[in-house]
Amino acid sequence: MLFIFGIRMARIGRYFDRDHICYHCNASDREVLVYRSYFHFCLIPVFPAGSKRWEMRCRNCGDETVLESVVETYQGKVRTPVYLYSAIILFAGLAISWFFWNQNTQRQKMEWVTHPASGDVYTMTREENHQAIFSFLKIIAVNGDSLTVLHNHWDYGEFVSRLTADDYFVKEDTVWMKQKDLRRMLDKDEIYSIDRNYGEGSGFNRIK
Fold it and tell me: What one-character DSSP code corresponds to residue 65?
């Protein structure tokens, strides 16, 4: 049966000891195995759990007595493998990747808001009745610091990256604004994203 989370055991060390005599047969040939339990999520190791478990076997007579002197000899050599932290490492990697992606996205939005171009489409967001509402603005002309902007026809109750088939930018709904107005909206987190290099499939070229 597959468990989503739980405790598993991993072997983290294997040694062949020839420095300690077996009390049963006086041979000096012992296999030393070291195990460590770990917590897993969907079989992905998250972090080690509990202390190390030692197993020993004389390769001559099979005696399995665990000797403290042998444990002390190899204790400092055993290292918990990095893969037992796989989930934490994966999460940290995703968090770092998201951070740099977000930083790059914010820089790009700032660059495009500072230097707007005709054809830029802004995905706008606002809150109504505790729900995020999304809409679009399209710049159709740039004259110095002055911008001519169109609104799209419909509002959306969730994020969309393109206009639906029955949506379009309304020619009669023309708005004039300044570049500083875009910066103000960006500072207030009203600009969710900006599209500049979009294709026909986005519907952003439909104006009625």
Answer: P
